[in-house]
Amino acid sequence: MAFGRCFSCFKYTVFLFNFLLWLLGCALLAVGVWLLMDDNAGRYVEQLTSSATSTSNGDVLIVSYSQVTGSSLVSTLAYLFIGLGCVIVFATFIGCCGAIRESQCLLFTFFASLFVIFVILVGIGIWAFAGRKDVDAHTVELQQITNKMIQEGVSNYYRNNESSRFMDTVQKKFRCCGADNAAGDYEKDRTKSVPATCEVKYRRRSCLPSYFRYVGDQFEKFMEDRLVVAAGVAIALAIYMMIGMTVSMLLCYALKDRTWNTNA
């Protein structure tokens, strides 16, 4: 009986919930399409997913998620946003139709759609939170990237200021010299001298191993922080879906109660 008297309240609550959820779905669709169509979107995402350590001499570490994993984060995010956006927009359409037509079947379908989204979000949240400590960036791909950065820094040390500044910073920070062959990397070219930042007592210590470990540790911390944020957002959205499921079920019961009173 009480459900029947609150029918209008539940009905308008479902409308409000669906409107807010529809806005979220449209936003996800828009972002997904933007990521696929706009070339600037790729550069923007790479900036957001790059781990950089700044020093007084410049950036020592600039490594992006795509570089380390070897996959395109932009396209992955784009298709994820578009897929989730489509599901949300579809769910809100079903929910609005169910509320307008006062159809228990459509409202149950709306509930089932929200439940699927809820399970996915909870799964993402648990995976992100539990996996934050299992991130391992010390991969072959990262080793290849750091090796290339150091090798290019050594070979271009006397050719441009950016390379010399990069190697000077690395050599000072890690008390090392050169790449794989330490000071020998510079001594290959007899016309060039070993940089002053290669301290004499450290000229036999190559920079690549220390730099590789440092980059890996920094990127792992970077990814752990992002996974915590992802877990928080996923759980928050899951709670919102749970509220929608509760309201849709209450509207179903209110509709059933009102129909029973009318027939009585």
Q: What does this protein look like?
A:
- The chain is mainly alpha-helical.
- The protein has helices at residues 2-5, 7-37, 39-48, 65-69, 73-101, 104-131, 140-155, 161-174, 184-187, 208-263, and strands at 50-55, 58-64.
- It has a two-stranded antiparallel sheet.
- A hairpin with a 2-residue loop joins strand 1 (50-55) and strand 2 (58-64).
- The model is unreliable at 54-61 (pLDDT under 50).
Terminal Cα span: 12 Å
- How many strands appear in the DSSP assignment? 2
- In spatial order, strands of the major sheet run 1-2
Contiguous low-pLDDT stretches (5 residues minimum) are 54-61
Order of helices and strands, N to C? HHHEEHHHHHHH
Question: What percentage of amino acids are in beta strands?
Answer: under 5%
Backbone CA Rg: 28 Å
Mean pLDDT: 77
- Note the total helix count: 10
Q: Tell me, what's the shape?
A: rod-shaped
Category by helix and strand content: mainly alpha
Largest sheet: 2 strands, antiparallel
- Helical amount: over 70%
Short synopsis of the structure:
The protein has 264 residues and is mainly alpha-helical. It contains ten helices and two strands, in the order αααββααααααα.
Q: Secondary-structure map with pairings?
A:
Elements: H1 2-5, H2 7-37, H3 39-48, E1 50-55, E2 58-64, H4 65-69, H5 73-101, H6 104-131, H7 140-155, H8 161-174, H9 184-187, H10 208-263
Antiparallel strand pairs: 1-2
Helix pairs in contact: 2-3, 2-5, 2-10, 5-6, 6-10, 7-8, 7-10
Key structural traits:
single chain, about 260 residues, mainly alpha, two-stranded antiparallel ribbon, 2 strands
